[in-house]
UniProtKB/TrEMBL annotation:
Region (Disordered): 390-422
Gene3D superfamilies tied to this protein: ATP-grasp fold, A domain, ATP-grasp fold, B domain, Succinyl-CoA synthetase domains
Gene source species: Streptomyces rugosispiralis
Record protein name field: Succinate--CoA ligase [ADP-forming] subunit beta
Source lineage: Bacteria, Bacillati, Actinomycetota, Actinomycetes, Kitasatosporales
E.C. no: 6.2.1.5
Amino acid sequence: MDLYEHQARELLHENGVLVPRAEVVDTAEAARAAAERLGGRVVIKAQVKTGGRGKAGGVKLADDPAAAELTARRILGMDIKGHTVHRVMVAEPVEVAREMYLGFALDRAAGRFLAIASAEGGMEIEEVAARRPEAVARIAVDPAEGVTEAKAAEIAVAGGLPRETAETIRRLWTVLTAHDALLVEVNPLVVTRDGAIVALDGKVTLDDNARFRQPSWDDADDRARDPLEARAAAAGLGYVKLDGQVGVIGNGAGLVMSTLDVVAGCGARPADFLDIGGGASAQVMADGLSLVLDDPDVRSVLVNVFGGITACDAVADGIVRALDTVTLGKPLVVRLDGNNAARGRAILGQLAHPLVHQADTMDGAAACAAELAATSVTAVTAAAAAASAYGASGTSSASATSTTSNPSTTSDPSAASDPSAV
């Protein structure tokens, strides 16, 4: 489980590593208030689980509380490598004299940990290693022995770090071992103008296999998750947020993974992985569809179900149930096969919703969903009108089961993936 920066910062602070004062907020107004409490001049940092925040404009210095509010407003909602910024950390600035890199990572092949240290911090360590491999020291650490005073001194010397960092090195090792982490990284670790060793940014990855002995993770897990992932977990759904535009729902991890690949092969990017499971009920299908439709990044939704324990008519009932409670403003493509597939298709046909399309094959369904996502601007306008008309009349003259009016839902995969056929 990856932690957000502010959560990693909490672990570092709890174990004696110096960190700047900071607060986490989710509104621009709260950022202003936090800046006032922190002295006025602050750094606003996007809280997303990806690198490159600075290059993307997600880390900015604000000279006063008013600037902090304006900067937070610009960063909140920003997309950084497919991650939407929902919160920012407001931190007091630090006068930096020197930047370094320090981290511990699990070396699975060797069955030990590696201490990684470099006198060149503040940038991606992979870039430093590629450009000047001699600038990055890698020192093996025996888990049975740990990081003693002598080992910490060895790591500091090898990485070109000042000897004063030795105590911080030992405290980082404590974070790793006490919290069952696979990775603990500080970049940059800085020496301030007054000589203090301070962790300006931290990254921590926890080992999910150790969850049984880390009860505090339950709270951290809730706070670390994307809001949609947290909602899915509460509903018992196997959901992972991705960075695309085609929402994907299926039954069984293997089928969902295959669907993701086929969607990508059609030139689109999946927006999520959602497995409703092998014995999903109509309610589970309804919950899953409502969740995916609430994702603002989704432009079209693909439901791909092979009926077994999960009967296709139950899936169709779940779709109908979901559309009774939410307004469908995005195209929905459904492919049903297997147990009770004909009955499920008939249920959707009777629904006759103008935004519900059916396909006979996975390739055809993926091609249709990809095409609809690509034309989302036009589709959204048409969807709003269609949904409004459907809501007013409760019926439609167009049959959702028709494949002749939409060639992209043909059973011929080659025709389905030809954009000229749509």
